[in-house]
């Protein structure tokens, strides 16, 4: 009987267990890999929870209509504030104190706490005229951009 493990030529050596060309004459016991999946599963679960948290916060912001900050409109609002001068400007010029009073009243009526508002004198009130007031609103300093909509004194405010 032919022995597959006996060399045909006696000058050849016996195969070793590390020789990949010949089968190993005895079974090699393989061990199961150690439990290393726990960390991977934990990180996957925590990532899913974090993503869910981000989606919940984003949904709450969309539902409540929270403002993205003071640059989007007036302080604490979801859109630009519009208003009208308390009295039509006499002639073309508008004194800074008059504009500051009207801007402060409009912001206060929207829930802001205006402690200081300084506006420059405006040479004329007409559609497309823009001026910038500076003030302290609800404890923070803001620049309030005033866009005049027409010569009757309608305006839009944008606090930045």
Total of helices: 2
Integer average pLDDT: 78
> Could you spell the SSE succession in H and E letters?
HEHEEEE
Q: Which range does the strand content fall in?
A: 15-25%
Rg computed from alpha carbons, rounded to a whole number of angstroms: 39 Å
Q: What is the terminal-to-terminal distance?
A: 97 Å
Structural class, by secondary structure, is alpha+beta
Into which percent range does the helicity of residues fall?
A: 25-40%
How many strand units?
A: 5
Low-confidence stretches: 67-74
Strand order of the largest sheet: 1-5-4-3-2
Detailed description of the structure:
By secondary structure, the chain is α+β, with helices and mostly antiparallel strands. 26% of the residues lie in helices and 20% in strands. It is built from 2 helices and 5 strands. It has helices spanning 37-64, 96-109, and strands spanning 81-84, 114-118, 130-137, 140-148, 154-159. A 5-stranded antiparallel sheet has the order 1-5-4-3-2, covered by helices on one side. The chain is rod-shaped. Residues 67-74 have low confidence and may be disordered.
